[in-house]
């Protein structure tokens, strides 16, 4: 998840939830339903934009 998320944020620092889910589609997670992961990527994107 981390590598895919980093690649996404390098490609697009303002991704939509749909775009995040698309970029993470190749990773399997049975424990969270991806909601917490998607929220974390959205928060990371906000942090990246704020520090730019």
From TrEMBL:
Coiled coil region boundaries: none
Gene3D superfamilies: [2Fe-2S]-binding domain
Alphabetical keyword list: 2Fe-2S, Iron, Iron-sulfur, Metal-binding, Oxidoreductase
UniProt cross-references to InterPro entries, sorted A to Z: 2Fe-2S-bd (IPR002888), 2Fe-2S-bd_dom_sf (IPR036884), Diverse_Oxidoreductases (IPR051452)
Keyword presence, Thylakoid: no
The [2Fe-2S]-binding domain, residue ranges: 1-41
GO MF entry, a single one: metal ion binding
Listed PANTHER family: OXIDOREDUCTASE WITH IRON-SULFUR SUBUNIT (PTHR44379)
Protein name: [2Fe-2S]-binding domain-containing protein
Source organism: marine metagenome
